[in-house]
Structure formats: C-alpha cells, structure tokens
Task: structure prediction
Amino acid sequence: MKKLNAKEILKPALSLFLFCLITTALLAGTNLLTKDTIAQQQLLAEEAARKTVSPGADTFTPSEDGSYYLAQAGGETVGYVFTTTANSYGGEIQVMTGISAEGDITGVSLLTINDTPGLGMNAQREEFRDQFKKPAPPDGFQVIKSGEPGDSDISAMTGATITTQAVTDAVNKAVAQYYEIKEAA
Result:
C-alpha cells in the first residue's frame, strides 16, 4: 500500500481553493457592476407594463402607501394599477393588473414567472391573459377546468392548472384591493 504524501493532497486542494476564490470574486464583481443596470431595466419594464395594463393612462402616480398606482389621463383618474404575487408551480409569480375607475379589468401582465416551458409559461400568452378583461367580480374570479366560462370564470390552461390558479389568485388580490379603495372613497 502506497503511503500518502502531503504534497499530493495539498497541491490539488490549494489549486481548487484558489480557483473557487477567484471565480467567486469575479462573480461578485460582475454582480456589483451590473446591479444598477439590472434595477434600471426592471423599472423600465414595470413602467412599460403599467402602460400595457392601463392603456388609456398617460401618467402613473404611486398611492400614499405605495401599494398601487393611480392611472391618470388629462389629470383625471382613469384607473388603478396593482402589482400582486402568488405561489405557482415554479415559485412565486408577480402579476400587474390594471383596473379602470369603473371596475373593468383593462389588462394583466406577468412580471415574473418561472413555470414549466410549454405549459405554465403559456400564461404569458395574450389569449390567456385576455380572459381577465371583463368587469372585476367583487368575489374574484374562479378557475374552471372545462365547460363554457361564465362572467367570473377563467378557463384553466391544459396541463397548467396550478399556474392558472396562481395568476387568478394574483388578479383576485388586485380586485380585492380595488374594492377596498372604492369602499374607502
């Protein structure tokens, strides 16, 4: 049996340690250099999403508590924009919902989603999101797996019921916030 030599053990261990240390330093440096750019891109994406979910608005003013935006056109409030979250198959999703001053859903946009490609990611498709474009029911929307959807029903995506429910839950949180605002006014 061969006797272990300290150099044979320490040399590869030290090389591996140095490689990991340098790689970690490079990744940390890259993160530090790109952090502000990533944050700025996210703000631009959120602004574009606000314009998409509330197409009649020209300005968006955050509420006093920062929980939603007032969508305004010509100085008058034309709606509200809410950003809500829910747990989905691939983790937490973030959904932006526009609701007109009259209570109609004007748009739904998914800000973050990490669900299964080809199934859950279909929630990003316009034909799925457009199902929400109708009057916001006070009790929220319900997911149905089959049949003709009613006024407050959302048809589940085939193979992605969890994602459908998550998006619906996030939109329902926005609807609940909308009705709280209307009751307080």
Notes: Residues 6-53 form the longest helix (48 residues). The chain has a mean pLDDT of 90.
